[in-house]
Recover the amino acids of this structure.
């Protein structure tokens, strides 16, 4: 499981590599393409970029972050995910704390998992039949990802329709939601130390990594 979680961000890169002929129609009120087509385009852009810069990404985590920010971040609902992670603590947070937590949470995830991007290629993911009704505004896309030792791991992506288009908000690996995992960890820490202390810790660790140091 450690190896699987370490590759979380890289799995997101290859999400929804479905042929255009299988794409479903999104509700009329949702702008942009339906989820499969949208993420197929983003995934292909990322794979194309990695084909050119794979060695650079392996050496320089900052380059992996830049690619994720540019290509993938617009299609992931980071605020919605962060709100779910904080749960009741989100309602008690100030607007400034919410904004800081969203950014710190995203940067922390990326610093932990972003370097795994360099290991992934298109042949590692198999698209499974689509399940769900896009008219509901929700979609679950099922895939299988091949790990280094040849194991096929089930990975599901939860997506929702937003005013900005379809966005992914959760990744479920072998039945385990990364939102629930982080909610359990962060929630316990907030209960014990307070939200401000947790945000400050995440920000300090992110700053240390950006400066070339290890976690604070």
């Amino acid at each position: 499981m450690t190896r699987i979680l370490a590759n979380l961000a890289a799995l997101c890169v290859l999400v929804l590599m479905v042929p255009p002929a299988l794409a479903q129609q999104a509700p009329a009120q949702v702008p942009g393409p339906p989820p499969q087509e949208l993420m197929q385009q983003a995934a292909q852009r990322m794979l194309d970029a990695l084909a050119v810069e794979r060695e650079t990404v392996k050496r320089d985590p900052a380059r992996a972050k830049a690619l994720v920010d540019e290509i993938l971040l617009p299609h992931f609902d980071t605020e919605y995910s962060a709100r779910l992670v904080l749960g009741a603590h989100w309602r008690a947070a100030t607007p400034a704390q919410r904004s800081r937590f969203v950014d710190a949470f995203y940067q922390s995830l990326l610093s932990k998992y972003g370097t795994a991007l360099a290991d992934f290629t298109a042949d590692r993911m198999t698209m499974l039949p689509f399940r769900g009704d896009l008219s509901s505004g929700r979609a679950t896309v099922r895939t299988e990802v091949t790990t280094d030792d040849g194991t096929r791991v089930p990975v599901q992506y939860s997506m929702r329709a937003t005013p900005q288009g379809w966005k992914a908000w959760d990744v479920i690996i072998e039945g385990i939601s990364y939102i629930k995992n982080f909610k359990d960890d962060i929630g316990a820490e907030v209960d014990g130390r307070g939200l401000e202390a947790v945000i400050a810790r995440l920000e300090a660790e992110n700053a240390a990594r950006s400066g070339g140091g290890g976690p604070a």
